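Q: How would the structure tokens look for this protein?
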Amino acid sequence: MSPFSLAGQTALITGANTGIGQAIARAMGRAGAHVICAGRSSCDETVGQIASAEALHLDFANPMAAQGVFADRQVDILVNNAGIIRRDDSVDFTESDWDDVMDVNLKAAFFTCQAFAKAALPRGAGKIVNIASLLSFQGGIRVPSYTASKHGLAGLTKILCNEWAAKGINVNAIAPGYIETNNTQALRADPERNKAILDRIPAGRWGKADDIAETAVFLASPAANYIHGAVLNVDGGWLAR
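A: Here is the predicted structure in token form.
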């Protein structure tokens, strides 16, 4: 069997209704996994594109939403992709915008990892892939809670690696660069911003959701069995410049 195969595995991807999460779900399905597509919005479109898949409603506005998910089914791979963003000048940023983003992007990610690990540790096997950001390394502008949450997710990836690597669970993260999704449509439609971004990317193009998806398949596969605690930039070289 190919070391990149996910045949016989079950993967749960959060935020799988659109964008990067949808692409990851499709890619894991192509690699042979049974895919659980989780989201607060309908994932029916995603499920319809995968040979073996099911939908699961999870709304991480409640950070503990996944607590019962892993008790009655074996899930081998967890991808924490669900996330939100709020924009405002830091001097005007509200407590509710801070809390809403931190709850979904960081608190929910931690407690979902915890719930997964409680089921996976007795088996001695499992893969977690967290979707971080370039703002796990950079500051950004007008997104203080998003930046804090993504810095935190990178740190969370490392501490969980330290605790679980020797017990059979791989915990890694992907930091996507500028990707062609609905979230970046306004940037790509602005000629000045689009040019400024492309001028900074050594690869000379925006990333595609499949660029992130195939990296997630790799990190979830046996080919990545000795990769622990990595935050892998998939950014066309953005951080190298």
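The chain has one domain: 10-230.

Strands lie at 10-14, 34-39, 53-57, 77-80, 126-131, 169-176, 231-234.

Upvote if useful.
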